[in-house]
Amino acid sequence: MPRQLWVAGLLGSVAPELDLFRFYFVDHCAHHHHDYITHRPLFWLDIFGLGLLMIRLG
Predict the structure, then answer these.
(1) 30: domain range?
(2) What are 16-52's pLDDT values in tens digits?
(3) How far is CA 48 from CA 3, 19, 34, 43, in A?
(4) Cα Rg, the chain, nearest whole Å
(5) Residues 8, 14, 16, 19: what is their CA dihedral angle, to the nearest 10 degrees?
(6) How far apart are CA 37 and CA 12, in angstroms?
(7) How many domains does the chain have?
(8) Rounded distance, CA 3 to CA 40, Å?
(9) Which pLDDT belongs to residue 54?
(10) pTM of this structure
């Protein structure tokens, strides 16, 4: 498997958890971080589709 796919997989597995910065520093733990948009599969499908579109047009 190409190295770029490994890197993309690792980043994709960590990306939904980056909302913890907002959870602790902005919302002060007021809402559970799984309620944020980064924990919704449709969000990541949209990001994936946008990336495919950019690759195809680029």
Answers:
(1) 3-57
(2) 788 888 889 988 888 887 888 888 889 989 999 998 9
(3) 18, 18, 20, 9
(4) 14
(5) -130
(6) 15
(7) 1
(8) 27
(9) 92
(10) 0.62
**If we measure between CA atoms, which residue out of 38, 56, 57 comes closest to residue 47?**
38
Give the whole-angstrom CA distance, residue 53 versus residue 55: 5
Residues 11, 33: contact at Cβ < 8 Å? no
CA 56 to chain centre: 21
| Helix (H), strand (E), coil (C) string for 9-22 | HHHHHHHHHHHHHH
How many Å apart are CA 36 and CA 4, to the nearest integer?
28
Q: Would you state the structure tokens that stand for residue 12, as one six-digit string?
A: 């994709």
